[in-house]
Amino acid sequence: MDKGSTIFLAVSLIIIMLGMGLSLVADDFKRILIYPKAVLVGLTNQIIILPIIGFAVASIFPLKPEIAVGIMILAACPGGPTSNLITHLAKGDIALSVTLTALSSLLTIITIPFIVNFGLTHFLEKGQIIQLDPIQTIMQIMVIILIPVSIGMMVRRYKESFALRMEKPVRIASSIVITLVIIGILIKDKDNLAFYFQEAGIAAFFLNAATMLVGFYSSKLFKIKNDKAISISIESGIQNGTLAISIAIVLLGNSAFAIAPAIYSILMFFTGGVAIYFGSRAVSKS
Q1: Which CATH class name applies to 3-280?
Q2: How confident is the model at residue 43 (pLDDT cuts 50, 70, 90)?
Q3: What are the pLDDT digits (tens) for 199-228?
Q4: Does residue 136 contact residue 105 with C-beta atoms inside 8 Å?
Q5: 92, 227 in Cβ contact below 8 A?
Q6: What is the residue extent of each domain of the chain?
Q7: Which bin fits 125, alpha (ψ -120 to 50), beta or left (φ > 0)?
């Protein structure tokens, strides 16, 4: 992508994070005291188990190096606003979902550089290796995540009526923007599109399905109720594709790394639909 497109993508992610901030209040960060077990299990799935499964998928499947790196970038970016919407439709615990999204967004500011660097070092040949500077990357991610989210939360606190009015338009605008970005990435590599869907699609789907299943059954292992288990499952399995694409293009400057996150961002709505169907039934039965 050219410089203009890169700036557009960075600004788009900032707007998306601002929109997420508009939906957050301070109590969302305090729920760790209310649901300590559920929050701990959820964060363990998001921050530790997800990258491990991502590495296993990238290693087991016969992927091109840039696709494998894309899977690792995706595995470093849990949660995101989409997971909250899917949790709501699946009748999960929306408060827990929002809490996990908020906390994981803060934690990944620190974890992303190390997970992505590991993926780059492991899957690329020596002459191709690009290293993210951890401190610089943390600062960049803070600019595109922490600062917009904080501004959104400040607006929500002091201008609540305005924040509530803007929440839906910002969400719609964000969806349109990321759709355009994904279309742009796929058009740019249209000659290899069928191959990328065949290769990256299977791996991305497996990552999505495996992490959702592990999230749900690890919750049941700790006797967490169905609605909270559904939230943890969705938060574990629905990755922040927008952030992953931004890391690939804005921070690493390589649109090939964004192929897996872009294809994943399409597939997750199908698996999300399955989660909504089974989640609604499970909560209704319980």
Answers
A1: mainly alpha
A2: very high
A3: 788 899 999 999 999 999 999 999 898 888
A4: no
A5: yes
A6: 3-280
A7: beta
